[in-house]
Design goal:
By secondary structure, the chain is mainly α. It contains 16 helices and no strands.
Length: 375
């Protein structure tokens, strides 16, 4: 049970610890806890339903699990959408790093434009080079990176930085309720990892109740971290007036953020290349074989080039939040296909829950489209 919880928390908690408190705070302000609560509830439900569906299956990534439940089309669809979504996500990460650098080097709030896009491009170019030539980091390195990310995120939250210094670059200026739906959609970026239970639960080989307990414990761990960071951020915004972080501290934080986020870009660009390769790989009889080996490897530099296109295309107000809608679309697709699998292959109780989840996801999509129409 503990293994499932640690695996779930480890897969969910990542670069989102740095990005999302600032983005959600910049989008919703004092109402940000509502978006965090809705996101955590939705992610926990998705993880619980998937855990129940795969408890007696073999360990697999989500696309492979969905292929077994619905057919190869489901896995190929999720892989294809995720491959594109990851490119938007890395552009968002790079833009956030650029915003941190700009706000650290200038006392004036950074304005999204060519200078920010150029800095973000530099982050992506280094990340792409690392993804191409450097070996993948080992488990120990990944654990150290996660702890370092959490600590840096906590220091940033304590100073309400960079949201207090760069409000326009992080989130578009919209009012409630559009702000709520955009913030909730952007939080899907921080929720990539809920689906990891399709691997950890079958590996644990424990009963459904203990597996559900592990998922709930993992959800609680994620909630403690994210709600804790959001609470510190909210408290700092109420305590400080504007950006009060000393210049030297801002520069140090910016350097740490850039180093960490460049590392995440490298990892994710490599992952996106693998996902795209699986999506293009023909399985037996020409069918997709998501989760398997690929005969056509997509190079990391191609993924990096696509990221650069999005980086320059979104050089505008709210660049980070708007780019995060790309990963949101990927997660929405994965969760919706998962809900369909639950409705079609689950027990009566699971089918009812899957139908409710599908309905919630449809409402979310409609409301986000409506929110985007006011921009």
């Amino acid at each position: 049970m503990l293994g499932i919880a640690v695996s779930l928390a480890g897969n969910v908690l990542g670069a989102g610890m740095l990005l999302m408190p600032s983005v959600v705070e910049g989008t919703m302000g004092a109402a940000s806890p509502g978006a965090w609560g809705a996101h955590l509830a939705l992610g926990g439900v998705v993880a619980l339903l998937l855990a129940g569906m795969v408890a007696r299956a073999r360990p697999n990534r989500l696309p492979g699990a969905l292929s077994g439940l619905l057919g190869p089309w489901a896995g190929r669809l999720v892989d294809a959408v995720y491959a594109v979504a990851f490119t938007f996500g890395q552009a968002a990460i790079a833009w956030f790093a650029a915003v941190c650098l700009l706000s650290a080097l200038s006392p004036l709030p950074p304005v999204p434009g060519p200078s920010g896009a150029a800095l973000a491009s530099g982050v992506l170019l280094v990340g792409t080079a690392l993804a191409t030539v450097a070996p993948p980091p080992g488990p120990g390195t990944l654990r150290m990176r996660a702890w370092a990310t959490g600590l840096v995120a906590l220091v940033c939250a304590a100073g309400a930085w960079p949201a207090a210094a760069a409000p326009d670059a992080l989130a578009p200026d919209v009012s409630f309720p559009a702000a709520f739906w955009l913030a909730l959609a952007a939080l899907f970026f921080a929720g990539v990892g809920w689906e990891s239970v399709t691997s950890s639960v079958p590996t644990a080989r424990i009963g459904p109740r203990r597996a559900a307990g592990g998922v709930l414990l993992g959800t609680a761990l994620v909630a403690i971290v994210y709600l804790g960071l959001a609470g510190v951020y909210r408290g700092a915004v109420g305590l400080w007036s504007g950006d009060v972080t000393p210049a030297g501290v801002r520069i140090l934080l910016a350097v740490l953020v850039v180093v960490l986020l460049t590392s995440y870009c490298a990892t994710n660009i490599r992952a996106a290349a693998g996902i795209a390769s699986r999506a293009l790989a023909p399985g037996p009889s020409g069918k997709a074989d998501p989760g398997g080996s690929s005969g056509r490897d997509v190079p990391a530099w191609l993924i990096g080039a696509v990221c650069l296109v999005w980086t320059w295309s979104f050089a505008r107000e709210g660049a980070v939040a708007l780019l995060l809608l790309g990963p949101a679309a990927g997660a929405w697709t994965a969760y919706t296909v998962s809900a369909i699998a639950v409705v079609r292959r689950g027990s009566s109780a699971f089918r009812a829950c899957g139908a409710v989840l599908a309905g919630v996801l449809v409402v979310l999509l409609v409301e986000v489209v409506r929110a985007l129409s006011v921009l």
